[in-house]
Each structure stands twice: as structure tokens, then as C-alpha cells.
Amino acid sequence: MRFFKIYGLFFRQYLKGLMEYRVDFLIGMFAFLMSQGAGLLFLYLIFQSVPTLSGFAVEEILLMYGVGLIPKGIDHLFFDNIWLLPRTIIQGQMDRYLLRPISPLYVFLIERFQPDAFGELVLGTILTSVSISRLALNVGFFQVLVLLGIILVGVFVFTSLKLLTASTSFWLKNSYPLMQITYNISDFTKYPLSIFPKAIRFLMTAVIPFALVSYYPALFLLGRLPFWQMFGALVLVTSLFSFLGYLMWNRGLKHYESTGS
Amino acid sequence: MEIIKVDHVTKNFTIYEKEPGLKGVFKSFLKAKKIIKTAVDDVSFSVSQGEIIGYIGPNGAGKSTTVKMLTGILTPSSGTITVDGLIPYQKRAQNAKKIGVVFGQRTQLWWDLPLRETFTVLKEIYQIPTAEFDERLAYFDALFGLSEFIKQPVRQLSLGQRMKADIVASLLHNPKLLFLDEPTIGLDVLAKESIRRTIKEINQKYQTTVILTTHDLADIEELCDRILLIDKGKIIYDGNVDLIRERYGSKKLVSFTLRSEEDAKKVDIDSFRTQDPDLQITLEGNQAHLVFNKQHLAIKDVIYHVLNQADVLDIDIADDQLENIIKAIYRHGLS
Amino acid sequence: MKRLKKYWPFMRASIMQMFIYRGTIWLWLIVDVFQFAMMVFLWKAVYQNNDVINGFAFTEMLLYYLLTNLFFVFSDVEAIYAVAEEIREGRISLYLTKPISYRLRLYFELLGRSLGILILLIPVVFLTGFTLFLIFDIVWIVTLEQILIAVLYVPLVFTLVFSFSFLFGTFSIYTTNVFGISIFASVFIRAVSGQLIPLAFYPDSLLSVLNLLPFRFVSYPPLVLLGKVATADAWIGLATLAAWVLLFVGGTALWFRASLKKMVVFGG
Prior knowledge:
heterotrimer; A: mainly alpha; 13 helices; C: mainly alpha; 1% strand; globular
């Protein structure tokens, strides 16, 4: 219970800060929208010249893109602090979290709320709804429920991977490049997986499984993939990676405790 | 009652040494030279509840490493540590409930939260009952004048305010042990006084055991009953503050204020040099400062001698400062 | 020229710093190579059913992106961060007390940075290019004149983007979100310069607007080297760009002097 109480206290502050620093917030959100917008512009311009990409129409690609953006945005909103883990370790600031009688991971995660991510959430929702209506997809109660399920579970694909790569900093100190590569790969899952060779497809499905949040769900919504396959894989892989991420974090802390900073 | 027991604790760090330059980069890739640095070397001591211990030593001596092991954020390479019946690095969260830690140079508060909210968060984290929480907050408000700055975000506080806030934060849950690492660094005289007073009060009122790591020997002189001196990973002194002064502080400073500069120049203590070759005299206007070893020269002899030579208006006698004593021990070791 | 001599140490220091960080830089370059590889797959899919799109063959597109990545070193918006940080930390006042121009000093520092990164980038580009040539059987003919023109464009492009970034950097006195500003600026430049996608892909309506802006010249070096822009046009473009650069530099100078007071006070 106290976990919620504590988060409530932080969250109230974040909202207050948002109001105070309205300009910063708007600039941040706008900047993110712009960078996503560039990706959309790129897609738009390509589709001016070709009718389909690897057999997919533009609306279908927008569907993949949009569906993947929502869980990405939620993760970005709540768990952005993981990006600061390498720096925290390098600067020797990890001790603070270890001196409190509460899960260090919990305190570390709640310290940052990134409202810039609203840009991703808004865009993702727009793209998903627009493409669904343009494609005249059969979206009933079941599909909506599934979509919510994908979004909820999908958040942890991003979070667990961030945690997993960030935790390598306990040993490597500077894992930013590793984290950045992983993040960049997530950017490419807005494109249909079929454009990539088998090895990359495997990478994006099982190793850095962002495709499970965008490509495969879109296939399901387009009626080309059975539900249980898509969702089963998502839940399985997410659970595995969440477990690995948490494990890596704990191992990392143990290592930190035996070697200091 | 023994609250801390450190039993033959050693902490080794493995450092990989790299040769400088491009050659070194390649070499370290294949096989890096391992160097084992012993930060803490077979250290043993125990602390009773209610003691205020000063933990001093030159930089790199192993102070912070020891404190980190005591607070559970570092595990010893060998030996055991018990804090109030628990092994801190094994039961870290449980141990954390009983301790308060203040780092002088880094804050443990949340930068963006107003101070009051920070305290409320800590109330939840340490699960402090509301009545007790309010009472302690009022207590510290009286001591530190918290209400003046409690509404401000932590990042806007001055150094003095922040330090006080950190101390309050570390004591809100009435910990049995308080670890202070340079709590008065960079503060003005009033703030230092205020903090020292608080620590003394808390110790007397609640029997809080205090481990104080500091370079400010005035802190030690005011607060500590006992000092632990660590150098190169080994404890070289464990005992009373007064004892160290008695045994190792053999210097006496006597300052004479004379009627005039000419009178000051008349002071001649060369006859004492055979008894104490380290005898020093410094002339400053109409003042003459003498530093001598009281084990070699009797104070009355020196004073009597000078009184006979010149017109003395005033005499100041002081023991050698703890600082100089410690300096000498750092340099020459105990003898 | 003699006046500029005193800035040489700044440039040299930056180049050396890049060498010190070469490990980190190469790590980031690997990230870039990976992204480049992904782009290759993407374009391969785009060219599945077409040989030439908007005047670009598949192999030309690959070369275009490779060259763009190379020349991109001179069009990054790093100045935004540098200026914002120096304003924030009040270091501007420090520089103003010295007998050197604040802007020129920063200019040469960042130029050194770009040169340093370029030197480290060259082997990576070579390797990538070589791999591309092998896999896709690319044939590419370049004339000396084209190379000369491309090289001449570089300092002008650098100065243009530097002034642009400098201006944006000073906006940090209005907001603390420097990250946001720099994303905005870099995305903008990427989109209107042809780094995101060759400008030939833009609809005519948009192109007419983009042709009024000087940022299209940022992608001229790759375009010239690929023969997409005739050398005659390229020479004219060089002169046009030079005029724009003078305008930008002059404009930033005026703006800087006007807002100097605000900036110095800000750092406190």
C-alpha cells in the first residue's frame, strides 16, 4: 500500500512541476512529435512513389507504427529514469538507494516522470484509430480488449529491455551505446518485419522483441495471425525478459556491493 | 551494550592497471594486470550503544569503506560485522530501518520535491507512525527553525539549510545508529554549532549511537568521547580523546604580550635549547609566541624566565591543537 | 588571417579530444552502421518493384545515404548544447573578458570536433562502402571537379548550420528544455535538407518552398558526387549558399549582441 502512497506524493509534485514549467513541457512534447513526424513524413513520401512496401499498404504500416507507439509511450512516461542508471552508477550515486529500507529499484523508477511522452501516446492513438477506420477493420469488443492487453503487456517489453541493458552498467559502467542500439532497433519495428532478412527478423522477435508489440499485433488485427499465437508469444517473451531484467538488476546490485563504485 | 561489532574485517579491491597510450589499450584488452588494493586491513573494534565515535584518518585510509560496510552497502572480503544483532550487508533493508546516514557532500533528499514532501515520503518509507512523525518534526523545527524553509524545493535550499534537512531526514525514524560523513563541511560557524548541539542532544535524549567521520577536528573535540584513527587500512588508535592529547599532545603554546616591540625583542630563550631543541619562538609586533615540549621544559620555568627579562602585560597558555597532534601521528605514526 | 591564428589552439584541442574519446565515438559509429544497415533493407524493399524512383536507382540511393552520413558530420547541431550549457553555467561572462570572440572560439572548437570525428569516421565509411560495393556490385564514377565542388561546400554548410544552431542555443534563456530545442532543430534540418530523404521525393508544392531555404545545400555534396546536380548548377549554388551564409552570420552577430545582456545575467 505504501508503494502507492509514495508514488502519489511524487506524482502530485510532477503535475505541479508540469504546470509550472508549461513551456518546457510543450517544447518537449512538440519536439517528440516532430521527430516522430519526420518518420511519418518519410513513410508518406515513400508511398508517394510506391504503392506498397513488402506487400503492405500505407495504412497497414501506420497501424503497426501506431500500435507500437502506445506501449512505448507509456514506458517512456513512467520509466524514463532507467536511462539515468549508467550515469548514476558512474557518479557513485547508487548508495542513496541502498540505504533505505525499501526496494532500490522502486525508488529509482519513480523518481522521474517524463510528460514529453504524451506526444508518443497521442500520436500512437491517432495513428491506430485512423488506420483502423481507413482499413475498415472489424474491431469489436474482443479486439479492443486484446489491444488493451497488448498495450499493457507491451509496456514491459520496453521496460524490461531497458532495465536489462542498463543493468550491464554495473559491470561495464557505460552501457549507453548498448541502450541506444536497442532503442534504435525499436524505431525500426514501425516497418513490416518482412523487409528484413531472417536473422534480423529473429532478432526483432525473440532477442529484442519489439516486433511483438507492433508488427504481430497489427497482423492479428488485419486478420492474418491467430490471436493465441500473437498474444501467447507476447506474454511469454515479456515474462521472460521481465524476469531477466529484474535478475540482471539484482545481480548488478550484488556486484556493486562487492566492488563499490 | 555492544551495538556494533567489527571482527577481523578485511576489504580488498581488484584494480586493473592499464599502461598508458595505445599500446596499453591493446595490452589491457588481452590481459590486464590485476592489482589488489587492501582498503581495510584486519580491522576489529566494537561500539557500545550511546557512544559518539570519531572516525578519522587521511584520505584514502579506508574510512568510507568501513562505513559502507557498516551500513550494508559493501560486503567485506573477510571477517564479520554485526550491527544490533544483524549482519548489515546480508539484511540490508532491515538494517536500513535502524540507521540514519548523512553524507556531507551529497544529499539523500529528492532534488525536486519540497522539503515537507520529502519528509512525508520518508515517513512512508520508514513507516513512521503519524503521531511520532509530527512530534519529531516539531522537535527539529524548534532546533533548526525548519518552518522557515520547509516549503521550498530541496534544490533551492542553501548549504546550511540542506545539511540540516539531511540530518532531520536521517533522524526522523529515530534510528539507533547515526552515521555522519562530513556533516559540517562548508558550513558557517553558527550552522556548525547548531548541528553539533543537535547531535549531542539526540545522543543524550535517545541514546543514539553516533559514528562521525570528519576532517573537522573541532567536531571531534566537541562531540566525541572516543576516536578511531585509521591509516592505510589499519586502525592505529582506538581510545579516548583526552588520552590522545595527554599521551601524544606534548606541545604547549605560550603567548606573551609585552609592553612594546623592543621588549619583545628582549625575550631570549636560547638557554632552554639544550633541554628542548625543538623550542620555537616567533615574534609578532609586541607579542612573543613560544612553542615547546612540556615534557622537556617546565611551564613555570619558561614563564618565570620571560617575566624576568621583559615587561609582560599578558600571558596566554594553550595546549597543542588536536589538529597538530593528529597531523604528527599521520606523519610519524605513533611512538 | 593572422587574427584567426589565435583560434587554432581551440580547434586543435577539440580534434585531440575526439581522439581521446575515440573508443566511445567508435562505439556510437557502430550504432550508426547498424542503423544504416536497417535502411539498406528498407530501401531494398522499396525498390522491390521499381528500378528508378524519382531519379534515383537503388544503388545510387545507397551511395546517397552513405555520403550523406559522411558529410553529416559537418551539419550537426552541437552548438545548441554548447551555447546553452555556457549560458546556464554563466561561462559566457568568462569568455567575454578575454580578448577573443565568443562565437569564433566556439566555431573553431566545434569545427575541430567535426574534423576529429570525420577522421575517425573515415575508416568506418570505407568499410561500409566497401561492403556495399561488394554486395551490390556498385559502379560509381566521380570527376575531380565534382570532388572539388563537394569539398568547397563543406565549410559553407558548416558555417550555415553553426549559425543556425548558435541562434537556437541562445533560446535556452527562455526554456530549460535544451534537449527539446535541439531535437526540434535537428529534425528540422534533417527534413528540409535532404538528409531524411532526397529532396526529389518531396511533392512539387513543398519543393518550391524548400528551394527558398538555404538548407537544401546541405545535401549538395552527395548530390554533386552522384551527378544528380550538374556541376554548373553546383557552382551557382555555391555562390548562393555563400550569400546565405553571410546573411546568417550577420544576423546571428546582431542577435548575439542584442541579447548579450540577458545571457550574462542569466548565468549569474
